[in-house]
Amino acid sequence: MSLDSTNFETQAVRTQTEKTQFLEHSSPMYLTSGFVFEDSEEMRAAFAEEKDRNLYSRFSNPNTTEFVDKICKLEGAEDGYAFATGMAAVFSTFAALLDAGDHIISARSVFGSTHSLFTKYFPKWNIETSYFRIDETEKIESLIRSNTKILYAESPTNPGVDILDLEVLGKIAKKHNLLLIIDNCFATPYLQNPIQFGADLVIHSATKLIDGQGRVLGGVTVGKKELIREIYLFSRNTGPALSPFNAWVLSKSLETLAVRVDRHCENAYKLAEFLEAHPKVNWVKYPFLKSHPQYEIAKRQMKSGGNIVAFEVNGGVQAGKTFFDTIKMCSLSANLGDTRTIVTHPASTTHSKLADEDKEVVGITNGMVRCSLGLEHIDDIIQDIKQALEEI
Ligand SMILES: *Cc1c(COP(=O)(O)O)cnc(C)c1O
Fold this sequence. Notes:
alpha/beta, Aspartate Aminotransferase, domain 2, Aspartate Aminotransferase, domain 1, seven-stranded mixed sheet, five-stranded mixed sheet, 12 strands, 39% helix, binds pyridoxal-5'-phosphate
């Protein structure tokens, strides 16, 4: 029996692969590389794609199918494909859809490895990328060329937690017949659904809040059926598939995504309010604080502000260093979206290679701290950050 619910929580919990003879309540794990056939005709029909069935786990597997089905429902997408990592999803999506000589327009502020694809690798295939600043979406149209194929962005951005107006991007993409691709990692499908605003494809690093417990890597791209078909054909030949084990873990993780993200956001909001009132903090950026430059846009397109808070400690690099060396509980790590609160210093770690001018464009200053709020009690998180600020 199934209830045809469109509620997020119900779909996240109740979307399951077909029952087997054992009627497991929790979906079993299908750790198999291949699948068998009754006879030669069945095998021929499967290879000819006349029959929708599993054949080989690089192509599909019941666990990856369950995970993808859930993400499709939660994002309002027609179809999808799951990858071993978020970067495999980003790379394969571009590689499947672009031809040599095509042009990309991207927000300047994107995940570091995505930026490396644009600057180091795609030029090998004569694929160029033009950039726009988060606060200059009105300039996007002037960047369009006859060979522009993709408009690409993330919102909220990493690490600046800036917000891009997805509706504006959707309109530009539609008017100029560009594919709009949104990396929705920071928001998760629970807080924001870019397809509603005109995105053709949505990408997630499932490693972050979707797993949410710092255990496995994974990625997924969902969206228009005909585009996913291209991405699927590229991927079944090139092999970036998600493992069934990780798919099983991630599918289970989705069952608790809504309750986890609610608490992540509650903690982040409370920390942001605390920091805003602290004398050793120059500024705080959190999408659902009224002081955020794109607060109105965030309120329009997101259900809540997410789990990332950015702030600047007073006193530049030295103050930043003291802050990190005095932290007792929060982890110093590059990951985000974990149950454990993580603090990162982008200027000396993830973004240390950027020129000062580029740091400014993506919203990084020397004293800036990125905090990924976890699920510890908020009093303990605030207490830890408070004692570190006192040492500055
Ligand atoms: C982490 C991240 C990625 C890459 O994901 P991996 O699973 O680490 O490969 C892509 N985009 C954003 C916004 C991310 O935060």
